[in-house]
Design a protein that fits this description.
The chain has one domain. A six-stranded antiparallel sheet has the order 4-5-1-2-3-6. Strand 2 and strand 3 form a beta hairpin. Helices cover 18% and strands 43% of the residues. It is an alpha+beta fold. The radius of gyration is 20 Å and the shape is globular.
């Protein structure tokens, strides 16, 4: 409760210190959106694996460093015709950061 009162006090005196009362962050301008099913990386806790379409035979997945992800949004659960379910999320990644995209193919 003390934190809330402190913030309210700062907003009251904001004209003196040029504190913005409302700050709109445009994620679409500085970030890219990726959707998929999250998986743990087998060797690193700092990496997120995101499988784009888990039920497709042609698998495409991304690897992102956790510190490049600005926001995560829950999409819900996706079900297959065989009765399998996967959890889906939307990830907002800052533009200009390195990531890995991998896909399967037949040689």
């Amino acid at each position: 409760m003390e934190g809330k009162q402190y913030v309210q006090k700062l907003l009251e005196v904001s004209p003196k210190f040029n504190i913005d009362k409302v700050r709109n962050i445009d994620l679409k301008q500085d970030h890219e959106i990726f959707e998929g099913s999250p998986k743990r990386h087998p060797t690193s806790e700092n990496l997120l694996i995101l499988v784009q379409n888990p039920f497709d035979e042609k698998k495409i997945f991304y690897e992102f460093y956790m510190d490049t992800i600005s926001s995560i949004e829950e999409i819900g659960t996706l079900s297959s015709d065989q009765g399998k379910n996967v959890y889906m999320i939307r990830v907002w990644v800052r533009k200009g950061n390195m990531a890995i995209r991998s896909e399967t193919f037949i040689v």
